[in-house]
Amino acid sequence: MINTLIGDIGHASVIVAFVAAIVSSYAYFMASRAKVEATGDNSWRNLARGAFYVHGAAVMMIIFALFNIIYEHRYEYYYAWSHSSNHLPVHYMISCFWEGQEGSFLLWIFWHVLLGLALIRGGRKDKVWEAPVMAMFSFVQLFLTSMILGVVIGDLKIGSSPFILMRDFMTDAPVFALDPNFVPNDGTGLNPLLQNYWMVIHPPTLFLGFAATLVPFAFAMAGLWKGKFTEWVKPALPWSHFAAVVLGIGIIMGAYWAYETLNFGGYWNWDPVENAVYIPWLVLVGAIHTMIAYRRGKSGLKASYILVIASFLLILYATFLTRSGILGNASVHSFTDLGLSGQLFAYLAVFAVLAVALLAYRWKSIPTTQKELATYSGEFWVFIGAIVLCLAAFQVLFTTSIPVYNSFMGFIGFESNAALPADQIAHYTKFQLWGGVAVAVISGIGQLLWWRKGNQGSFLDAITLPGMLTLLFASLIIVLSKLGVLNETIDNPVYITLLVAALFSVFANLSIILNLLHKKVSLSGGAVSHIGIALMLIGILFSSGYSNIISQNVSGMVYSREFSDDINRDNVLLWRNSPVEMDKYSVSYHGQFQEIAGVPGYVNRELLFPTADEYKAIARGPIKAKDKTYFETGDTLEVVSPENIYYQVQYKERDGDKSFTLYPRAQVNPNMGLLASPDIKHFADKDLYTHVSSIPDPNEEKEWGELQEYEVTAGDTIILNDYVAVFNGIEPIQQVPGVALEPGDVAVQADMKIFGERKNYHAHPVLMIKDQMLGRVPEEVADLGLRITFLNIDTENNKFKLGVNASQKDYIILKAMEKPFVNVLWIGTIVMSIGFVMAIIRRNDEGKKKPKAAAPKEKRKVQAA
Amino acid sequence: MKKTHIIGILVIAAAIVIIMSSVGDASTYVSFGEAIERSQDGDMTKVHVVGRLKKDPQGHIVGMNYDPLVDPNYFTFTLVDTNRVEQQVVYYNPKPQDFERSEQVVITGNMQQNVFVADKILLKCPSKYVEKEVQQNTASL
């Protein structure tokens, strides 16, 4: 039966949220007028608060309704049907909540509500900012809730509702004409690539970062609007740090997810969708720097305005790029067009016009210092750093926007056929690498000058030690690499430059931390973050610059094709159980495995007898893992995700006896083709990254050769497909997997032993008489490409007839590469985040100090932490 | 001249360099005819070509060859561009799994002698992200 109630509740809540956002933004606008503020009349503000609370409650209601639809498998709703399925575990139901565009808008709206409530709470004491800042918040919410409104007025469609019913979405489907109350049995499920724990936490983190950029923007706009041109920086600064660290972590999580789950072979591919969030992050970090410089030296206010506003507008631009469908030809993972491009463009345009107009109108009133910045001052280098960040952002922005130029040219009637660079990684690296060098050098110099407040002399003193250490370590690393201690020889001058710059940044910032240890270590957040960034640069340099494909095809096959030089032969074919030499390893493929509920690791598919329900299998033998038996023969097992097959690949060192096993995953998805996920072996100094690039199509029936019949007696030896096999005889059995034997039924199995290359196999084809019918359960030895059928028993002569089919052996095509020092990148990320958190705590305390000298209880806790 | 002015000029100069260089790196969508012309002029820059797979009247794909047992790193097929020009394309990588089902194929690469060597293949499959039909097996229940 169709449950329309929950959808109606959800839809009604969207409308309530939308209307409440209008009321709240209007009331907050009225409350912020100078006249109202002067009279001390709180009625507008109270109305606005009330409306925002209603908005918040309605948003919670929408989320509840949508989650209920997913959780209860209400497939009469399109959203549940297209994103969820019956077998999805709860944590993936959470991720399918935001797999769709509407859900991700909802996530964004949700974070704005929480941030807004936090600001209202903070505004209790300090009432200056609440009204204008929250007016901006509610105004943004108005646009965002309109995206999921799902209201159609004539030809005008406003928003796309997540609560649309299947029958309303697919009006053409004949089944709804027959039965309007038809409910599909199962959903189409969550995109398997997203079935990963990072996908459960990456989108909420990213959207919290998105949402948090609104806070400094709202403060900046409030400052311009209310004429408080300088005061906004102090409350906005900790929020900018917060937005930058959350957005940064969100981006890195996405990168790590791509690294771990996608077979792109890396963590960053300069995909337009990745770029779209990288650009605002760079600008936001630039904004933080100019704001810090302003806090100390009273210069850079205008730059802070520009960058804070730009970072928010770039977030909106990113939203427009990824959701309007404009990247359709350029990116594999942008959202499809929901027909919201006009609305998205309106959202971007309104805030761009509003912010730019307000800034231009107030430009002359923004105080500036006439003081020229000295070259030997920290502030000067902080500015240079911000400029470098912005130029880096501009470069990515310019190239990523190429599809937008095409659309725009098409819009005004010109034909344009510009495409993104053919080799995107080379293109972006060319610029961003030098951006990295500049950032590293400037962050080192800038920090030294910042804490020296110095003149030329003391700066030279300060830079000497880090400089010497840098040269020492850089030459040590280069010499070691030449001597072959490291796997790779570092001789590319560009890479050496980046290495030296990054090492300098590490040592310079380390010297700052050591100095601050004596004074006040809580001030060293900046230095810690900069070390993190420098480590990230080193990690990127080695893992990308010196990534090494070890699965070179050395089969010795003659390449008589069109070209012979410099073409990649990066994939090798691995026959089952036939080792191939790769780098210093001997690599072999040993069969297909699956995940079974309750059993750690993976279970060989040869032990699983499939049933009609693909989520259930019957154990052919005892299921063991690490000497513990989890299931006995005949037990029914629960297959965790039947579409995912894990290919066991064993690496064995040729010199030495170390070996390890990897399980790269692959699945052939009916909608998306082969989805391969790598498996990664982590070493201290590198990762070994392995993924399957191709497998025989599992949807094609296996081609079996002609049936060969053998007549044998117990103890006979026969040759099957070049393997020696011994027939030991037959034995009666009580159980046949997957068949219920009743009294009167008889089942016997043949006992055969086949001598394979690596091990011996036991085959037990079954012959049974059930309900007076002859039944056969053939045994497949996939390792050897054999299928043995027990055909008949000749009781008079005591002979047995066996049928054997042979087929091509199983294979996989594999790609493997080494990523040296990739751990340094992840460590750098963590260090950077710690630095940011230190800075947030410091800036937050600083912001509180002024209004109240006595520290409230909460603050003490933070200090203790 | 003030220091800020010098910096401002430098920033503008850097931005111009970025724009010029990015424009130089940008690729274009072309037809096979133009790709051939480019290679005859000695221009080896990589281009994008949009096309469809060549099919016989029965709808079977023709001119496609991938035999991983012989060479897992060699895949060749025939692509028909929007001007209906046929061209053999070689891809030195395993065949993308869903290749046959694609509606449209975007390749990047260039002409080398008489074949187009692709280094990237982007497939546009039907209903890749939005399912538009209730599947038969669910609908019949």
Overview of the molecule:
The complex is a heterodimer of chains A (865) and B (141). Chain A is α+β, with helices and mostly antiparallel strands and 865 residues long. Chain A has four domains: 190 residues, no CATH class; 197 residues, no CATH class; 129 residues, no CATH class; 100 residues, no CATH class. Chain A contains 23 helices and 30 strands. In chain A, the strands form seven sheets. In chain A, strands 6, 7, 8, 14, 15, 16 and 17 form a seven-stranded antiparallel beta sheet that branches. In chain A, α6 runs antiparallel to α7 and α10 packs antiparallel against α12. Chain A is globular and about 110 Å long. By secondary structure, chain B is of the alpha+beta class. Chain B has one domain: Beta Barrel (OB fold (Dihydrolipoamide Acetyltransferase, E2P)), CATH 2.40.50. Chain B is 26% helix and 32% strand. Chain B has three helices and seven strands; from the N terminus they run αβαββββββα. In chain B, strands 2-4-5-7-6 form a five-stranded mixed β-barrel. In chain B, β6 and β7 form a beta hairpin. The radius of gyration of chain B is 22 Å and the shape is elongated. The C terminus of chain B is likely disordered. The interface between A and B is large, with 59 and 62 residues. β3 of chain A pairs antiparallel with β1 of chain B, so a sheet runs across the interface.
